[in-house]
Amino acid sequence: FINETQGAASYLWDFDDGSEPSQQRHPQHTYTEDGKYYPQLVAFDDMGCSDTTRKVISVVPVSINIQTANLKYDVVDMYLQPAFEFTNLSSIPLDTLYFKARTNKEGPVRETWTGLLMPGESEQYIFSSQLPFTRPEEHVYMCIEVNLPERFAGREYTTEECISFKTDFKVLDPYPNPAYNFINLGFVLPFSDKVVVEVFDIFGNRVIEKNIPEISIYEGINFIKLELHNLANGMYTYRVRYRDEVVAGRFVKL
């Protein structure tokens, strides 16, 4: 307890739990049972005049709850880099968390987060480790697992969330970007169907058109390689069409 009284000569603390009162200026006190308490401070001056203040303290059991959300990933050079958001829904601050990332084919990779995450706060995390991602058609899902040291809850705590690589149509960031002689473009398909990839120069002229038949691509993650030898250096726009959906982006040719 922090005593901010001005001009007092002595003090009397009542912690409202049946324990002995304290005459210290800044006492420490441990409540051993859950409940609502009304600790009271009485301050006395040299003439015996007094003033009183009272506060409320709610003592509740420690609750541990880590929420994971917004699982994401990048794929570069056939390696997958996971990322996600985590929120501290516990009743206490957290300073250490253990993360695992895996797919149905590879992993897990393990990393440790340290910092200070207060109750209700969120943070983004990108794994520095990567998972091999050869034969992407065999990867079905990615999972992120969060573990807590036992000192927080007195027991093992684990939560896990997974996402499918086959849920929604999605276009991954092309690489390398800037590019020289070629660029790799990845996309996720919820169902196997034909895809059209187009590339336009800064004047809107279509310089590449690639029609990919259904039999050449998989449900899930696919990658294609676009040759850029014949293109001049500069900025280009790509467009990927799948059924009624279109996703566009840009890359630089050097």
What does this structure look like?
With about 250 residues, this protein is mainly beta. Helices cover about 0% and strands about 50% of the residues. It contains 1 helix and 20 strands. The chain has one helix at about 150-155; strands at about 10-15, 35, 40-45, 50-55, 55-60, 65-75, 80-90, 95-105, 110-115, 120-125, 130, 140-150, 155-165, 170, 180-190, 195-200, 205-210, 220-225, 235-240, 245-254. The strands form 6 sheets. Strands 6, 7, 10 and 11 form a 4-stranded antiparallel β-sheet that branches. The N and C termini lie far apart (about 65 Å). About 15% of the residues are buried.
Explain briefly what this protein structure is:
The chain has one helix at 150-153, and strands at residues 10-14, 35-37, 40-44, 50-54, 57-59, 66-76, 79-88, 94-103, 109-117, 122-126, 131-132, 141-148, 157-164, 170-171, 182-189, 195-200, 206-212, 220-227, 234-242, 245-253. It has 254 residues and is mostly beta strands.
